[in-house]
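Entry 12.
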Amino acid sequence: MKSGIGRIEALLLAYLQLRGMRLVEAGELGEPLQLTAAQECDALRRLARGGLIARVRPGLYLVPDRLPLGGAWTPDEALAISSLMADCGGTYQVCGPNAFRRHGFSDQVPMRVYAYNDRISGERTIGAVALTLIKVNAKRLGDVETLRGVDGGEMVYASRARTLVDAVYDWSRFNSLPRAYAWILDDLDAGRVDPARLVRTALRFGDLGTRRRLGVLLERAGAPESTLARLERSLTPSSSLIPWIPSRPKRGTVSRRWGVLVNGQVGEWGDTDPG
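Predicted 3D structure (tokens):
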């Protein structure tokens, strides 16, 4: 056990691990360990500061099933975010840079975990895990896959098709256009995703701008007319144009069908955003 902790902290940690408690809330240990509320809270805070347990929120802590050599411990990303969401009764899915890496669209390693959820907005830190939580309407959650982490928690990721649609929908947050267009073209060419799947996902989770931009891309990529027509039927008439690549000068050709100013060419982008 890590040296430098007091008798109460050692007693508390030994009790938690003997009972196999992975989550503990302030108030649970006073009676069995004959501690005052102040003693219990102080001991939990000191254990968290020492890296022996991890604070999920004030008064709630994650506990390792066993301490690693050297004593310091932090939960993995899956356990951290699943514990936080379970505590607040929320639903989440990992998105953005983490999903881009998970599906092989980018090799950059994010320093934070980005997640859509229906409860919390803002940044949190649990142990060494930094979270950026993006609160959305519950209707925008879905189309996911689940992975298990090394600490036993489950981590819910956006599916491949959902990640591609999110890269177009949330381009300003994730700085993902025009890179996302190249990812979609590569996946279409390799057969990892098909136009109909993208359209279904865009109709469910995308806004009008997402559908218009995807319409231009899919039309130029040779998607079946029946698929394009389904996407087109979801649009509302508008005389205003949106840029295909928002970060670039608004010069180019006009697609009247989709209401888009096409200020770029299909297939000209790599993995880094030149804009």
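Annotation: Residues 270-275 have pLDDT under 50 and may be disordered. The CA atoms of residues 8 and 165 lie 52 Å apart.
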